[in-house]
Amino acid sequence: MKKVELEQLLSDISDRVSYYKYENVDYRSYYLILANGDRIRVQFPEFSIPHLLGVNTNYLSSTGLFKEKSTMALLNEMCDNEFRIYSNIKNGIISDEKLFSKHVKNKVKSFVENLKIDIYGIEFVCKYDKSKAHILGQEGLEYDYLMCKRNNEGKYFVLGLVQNENGVYVPRSNQYFENREELEIKYSNILNNQSFTFISNVDVRDFNKFALNASAKMRKTIGIEEYASKFGGYVDVTGEYKFSLSKYQSNISNGILLTKEYESIISSCMENGELIEPESFGLSNFSTINASLVQIIMSYNNMITSSSIEKSDSVNSKYSKLIEELKELRNECKNLKIRNENLSNENNKLVNENNDLLNENKGYADAITAIENQIIKVKSTK
Fold it and tell me: What's the pTM?
């Protein structure tokens, strides 16, 4: 490795370590709820950082160049002694191939991205079952979960997690891929028959909480279906399904289920400035609609009628008064329709009688004409 190349690499590694310390990542815990129902806790302890950056601190310790014993202390000492490291590599005392992973540059490149468990950027989570790989005679991975993330530039970052003796999941692998094609080539023969899911909730302890809404969950499900199909795996969102079903049943029990049809009716009334009535939903009253929703409807109805009704009236009295007026108008309209129908029927009857009289009158006229003609004939013969 050239001196300039080594200096740049150690500088980049030092920057990543500084970021790790500055962001207090070592004290941060991520509590994840996966769509398959799993709940896992993820941490990034100090001892895992050198490996994630592609540095073999065990080898560095074995050379005896530095007295530090902790992995992070060795990593810092290495970055602070560029010349010493380079001289020992140049003189053959240290092997750069043993000290650094052959993927060290990519590991350094993806390090910061993989420290951020972004619920929106994670493309999929693969729950890895080693027994399936052994059964199929495939190369086995030493991970319990694989988290694949994609950034806005279309780069992919994969983090391999394993469970420690305390039940916490810690990183064992940090990988970078320029594009999806590289990702698929790497895992095309490894993730067969493995389950794919997504993160639905993240609780970053003492920091923030994030959760996907229903639309985002649907998009994630469609996305992981594509990955599962490509890698020969299957989708597992049973935990999310159970949660949705439980919420649906709860909404029904509490009477707060709002259907798409109801949403459309309410939106239409509000857009057109119309009253929202029980009849709008095909109901005789609001008794079957949740009280909270009725309160919103009443407040809305009061708002659009407040200009024509005394301000001192209560919401219920205003709305009730308006409903009574509306009922009276409807009854009057109904009575007018009935009267109109009766008058129409009576008019038809009179028209028929008039036609009969016209026909009868015509008969009389024809008879008179015939008699007059006969009189004329008699006079002409005298």
Answer: 0.63
In eight-state DSSP terms, residue 24 is: T
Question: Which of 137, 123, 161 shows the shortest CA–CA distance to 41?
Answer: 161
DSSP 39: E
By DSSP bridging, strand 208-211 and strand 169-177 are unpaired
Q: Report the alpha-carbon distance of residue 91 to residue 85 in Å, rounded.
A: 10
Half-sphere exposure of 109 (CA within 13 A, CB side): 13
Look at residue 275 and give its three-state secondary structure: coil
Q: Phi and psi at residue 96, in whole multiples of 5°? A: -65, -25
DSSP 252-311: HHTT----HHHHHHHHHHHHHT----GGGGT-SSSTTS-HHHHHHHHHHHHHHHGGGS-T
Q: Distance between CA atoms of 141 and 143, rounded to whole angstroms?
A: 6
Task: Note the pLDDT tens digit of each residue in 70-122.
Answer: 888 999 999 999 999 999 999 999 999 999 999 999 999 999 999 989 899 99
What residues form DSSP beta bridges with 175? 158
Tens of pLDDT, residue by residue over 262-310, are 777 877 787 777 888 888 877 878 777 766 677 777 767 766 565 444 4
Which backbone phi and psi does 176 adopt, to 5 degrees? -130, 140
Contact predicate 89/198, CB 8 Å: no
